[in-house]
Amino acid sequence: DLVLVNITPKIGSKDARAEVTATNSEAPSQLGVKFLVSDGQPDSEPVPFTLTLILNHPPKLLGEGPLHVTYLEGGDDWEAYQLSVKIIDIDEDNILFTLEDLPSDIPFEVSLDNAGNSLIFKKKDDDAFGTETIRVTADDKKGGIVTFPLKVIIEEVNDPPRILETFPKEITISQGEPYTLDLSLYVVDPDNE
After folding, report:
1. Residue 6 predicted with pLDDT over 50
2. pTM of the full structure
3. Reduced to 3 states, what is the DSSP secondary structure of residue 82?
4. Which site among 57, 75, 107, 173 is 20 to 30 Å from 120 CA-CA?
5. What is the distance between the alpha carbons of residues 112 and 187, in angstroms, rounded to a whole number?
6. What's the whole-number average pLDDT of the chain?
7. Among positive and negative, which fits the CA dihedral 29, 33, 35, 36?
8. Between the CA of residue 27 and those of 66, 72, 151, what are the distances in Å?
9. What is the rounded distance in angstroms from the CA atom of residue 94 to the CA atom of residue 56?
10. pLDDT of residue 146
11. Which residues contact 88 (CB under 8 A, 6 or more apart)?
12. CA nearest 128: which of 109, 107, 110?
């Protein structure tokens, strides 16, 4: 489907131009067009020509959105997040992924591997958890640029309590006398439970 918009400012002017807009993204790449003009009286003879449309679809999310990834707090097995299987370009253009600026207080580090179209996440410390949204931009280098939010969830894991190295190796008590050992000096729970 094409729409032929006014010829402006008027026929015969050196600045006269016609604007053609593709209204259907599935239109064929080449169309046979007949050009004619009218001044309200009989129309001119049509002049046929071929109009070639260059269509570019921006990158899009494959499947149901939004994007999200979940890791476990303290885990060492954080796999790379494959952007190239989540965001595609139906024109099969190569996509360049970039990250928007990240806040410094997020509980993870993230870097982009453009060669593999993957995000690489690393924990900042073993006890960091929370949910953050980062923004990934996909650019097909042909005018199609889209930014997608990616929710990163680091699930809290119950960490076992630890006995500190300062726990006494030997305790001497007198028979018949009560003895109290304050365990709060020697035991910590990373989750404060």
Report:
1. no
2. 0.61
3. strand
4. 57
5. 40
6. 80
7. negative
8. 29, 47, 36
9. 12
10. 92
11. 59, 60, 62, 95
12. 107
